[in-house]
Amino acid sequence: MPGMRGAVHSSISGELIRYLYTLPPMTSTATQPAASARSTISTSRRGDIQRWTQTIIPTSKEAPSDAEAPSHKLLSRGGYIRRVGAGVYDYLPLALRVIEKISAIVRDEMNSAGASELLMPALAPTELLRETGRADDYGDLLFRFEDRHGRDSYLGPTHEEVITDLMRGVITSYKQLPLNLYQIQNKYRDEFRPRAGLLRCREFLMKDAYSFTLRVEGPGGLNEQYDAMYRAYDNTFRRCGLDFTVVEAEAGPIGGSASHEFMVNCETGEDTILVCPESGYAANVEKCETGERAWNFDGDPTGDLEKVHTPDCPGIDDVSKLMKVKPQNMLKTIVFQGAEGQRGKGAEGGDKKTWILAVVRGDQEVNEGKVKDAFGGPIAMADEAEAKAAGFAIGYVSPRSALDMTDALVLVDPDAAQGSDAAKGKSMFWATGADEHDHHVKHFNWRRDMGAALDDASKVKVADIRNAVEGDPSPRAEGATLQARRGIEVGHIFKLGTKYSEAMGLLVMDETQERKPVVMGCYGIGVSRTMAACVEMSCDDNGIVWPMPIAPYHVLITPIDVDPTGRAMKAACELSGALSEAGFDVLIDDRDERPGVKFKDADLIGIPIRLTLGDKALDQESAEFKLRTDTGKGGLVKLDEVVAKCLEAAG
After folding, report:
1. Which tops the pLDDT comparison, 258 or 103?
2. Is 471 exposed, middle or buried, given 0-12, 13-18 or 19+ CB atoms closer than 10 A?
3. Which terminus of the chain is less hemmed in, N or C, by CB atoms within 10 Å?
4. Which runs of consecutive H residues, i.e. helices, occur in 518-594?
5. Distances (CA, A) of 629 to 232, 256, 483, 641
6. pLDDT band with cut points at 50, 70 and 90 for residue 1
């Protein structure tokens, strides 16, 4: 176990026993010399020793009424957190110790990767966000307000603009690059519905790092910085004892050309991960590709077009019920617009397009990122008023609405590009919008109703534009299919490129004395979220099961008799001193409570090793040794062998 160094003592003097029992709260100096004699440089770590009665661990049998996620229930019941307001929590001593241990591992790995720590303000002028357009992009998620002087300010959800503003004031030459700076700080997002305790809250602790280079490739380039952060994150979560998967991900509102998420694997996870069991490829739903899927527009019509009145049917499910058509037999058409001034190539050799019609099966979801890639340029959901003015019956659009437009491209997902039903050996039945308010049609046929446009690459293009689902063909291994897992995001790394530096004028002279925008990367770890995700991953019916590296204490000593002059308390003091010397953090449960209460609380708070000191064990000069992961009763270990046994268990 990292940090566990130093001699192991099998006996402690009576003087030290009395000293240990009268220690003030949260001391870590039980066996250290007086402060004036201590060296400022330490090559070993002595563990902390704490008594239950001198700290706050308000355990409870019942979880808060609003707690649904296991981590929310157990962290609340175990006395780790207490709700202050919606999405805002107190971190009690046990939680703070976990957070500090996670933070220490993060710092160690970040420093080892060449990053340097700083601290930026949580409060910043909104003018910085206006420079990049994110003052509007964040919308209601942003905590934004005016101070007494009327200055528009916000509480940072992330710090891309703040760090870029700092760097444009201190970086003047390429010789100062590359650089990677990070901080660990509270972040703020005004979630509409905070939920799941620390997993979706309004104030949370985060590590955010930012790299600065002048190039993408080569020594000191973005790719090199990104790979270093990838390794640091991998090391960090391994050292925290987490079971996790690294997945390809969409950059989202932060932007950038590439990103990866680090997802803790657990059945209660809020995110879906799709994995190829053959190749190891993994991605989140928004990013996951699919393998080749067969498609063919040819097939005879199943009947004449039949218009159906569908009033007050805003969604596919409503329409399918009214029309008695299964959602998988409906075509759903979503209208997008090419970004103004940056219209992409719709298809090979085609003209630039303003309107993009994304067509998927009714039981599937359009993936905006994939639509953007297939279109070949920036896009956005169509403005409803503009789309209606252009002739689209929003909510009732069919692929046919693009036929008479010169600036429209129809993108069709392969599952929707089917003229025949291969499984049933007959023509494919489709229903779709009628391009008329409150109306749909039955018996849509691609070849009959789209005609020559199907063979015009500038009008119609087939591409993967939907969210992948379990059972889809793998994009990396022929014959394999994607499998779904659940996970919780705890880390996310991005290749930002020049999005922020260009917007905010972060330019430096390169070797040729030419001013160029700095190439940036962004790297985040949810520190408080990691604590909650670990509980989701590692718990049972009795409580939390902490991995050793981030447990608030490594060892819980439970004397049955808490008389200060009794042999149980004396043994507890001796053991705690010896364990501290070996690097273990020790909590002594010196409460005057029934053994059953203590044992239940021990399981609830989840400390990895429990040592019970009762009369029967002490009669044999032993302690009962039990790992939190063990079922049933523990086994006896001689008192002078306890430290060695704990070191063995710690690994």
Report:
1. 103
2. exposed
3. C
4. 527-537, 567-581
5. 28, 42, 29, 21
6. very low
